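Continuing the batch. This is chain 6 of the set; chains 1 through 5 are on the previous pages. Same settings as before, nothing changed between runs. Recording input and output for traceability.
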Amino acid sequence: MTESTATPAESVEEASASNAQGLQRTTLASLPGLYADLVKFRLSLLVVGTAAVGACMASYGDIPWPLVGWTVLGTMLCAASANAFNQVIEYRRDMLMERTKDRPVPSGRLSPWHGWVVAALLGYAGAAVLVLLVNVLACALAILTLLLYVLCYTPLKSRSTLNTLVGALVGAIPPLIGWAAVRDRLDTEAWLLAALLFLWQLPHFLALAWLLRDQYAGAGFRMLPISPGGEHATCESTLVSTLLLIPLSLIATLMGMAGFVYAGIALLAGCWWAWRAFTFFRVRDRVSARNVFLASLLYLPLVLGAMVLDRRPILGTPDTMNAMTQRLEGP
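Output for chain 6:
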């Protein structure tokens, strides 16, 4: 392999020199695709999916689909705003990574100011939808998610390996948004969903960071796999977190949130993922790391989908649901 003699600053300057050409190639017809890339549309869908799960699990009886729809829309807009802000803030570092250099702002197809405006408009729109059509608590949680992502997680990525924990905390809030949308409060069951999401993100992101550790190092990001002793700590943390997910996921059945079909699926999926993590811990190569990452992408929709399909009515006062039903049905 031939090593590059250019410094990160020189590499950024070279990448920036092509931005003007990139802006000239941008057309009105290409904007929808550019906006989808700017807001990391697939990642936003994941956030929306977990919020929808929270809303479904919080429903006392029938799922209030109109309310879930507004919650999904508002959460989607806020998540898109956070992702767009993140891309604009990090675009100079993104230029240095093979994985991110072709994103709209780093590639020069959108200007940073264009990205700022789009991100701000999306954030305001999402907050407006949630506060006007859902409730204040759901809106506050969505705004908290956006602020933590932009003001804490994003700057921490270049300063401390703790960014992974902060990012996991941010990703744990969307199911709380869905729960709050339906019940206008946060019950114990909501915090269990948040804990599942928090713990799931650790092996998911650590495996990805291990795969991209050279790119992260070249761009100046502080990730656990590239810190002193970090490769060993990454493998250990990945294995421990997948093992902890197994009993944590089964608590949903013990609490009466979901039935035994869900418990069986969660147990099998958890053991399978933990085995992948154990292989990564033992072998420590790209193939095993990639298998852990791919397993995470299958684990989450499988377990959350089973939970929703096998959900059980959660004991509690249905006053909030009755009030919400009357509000949806109108006078």
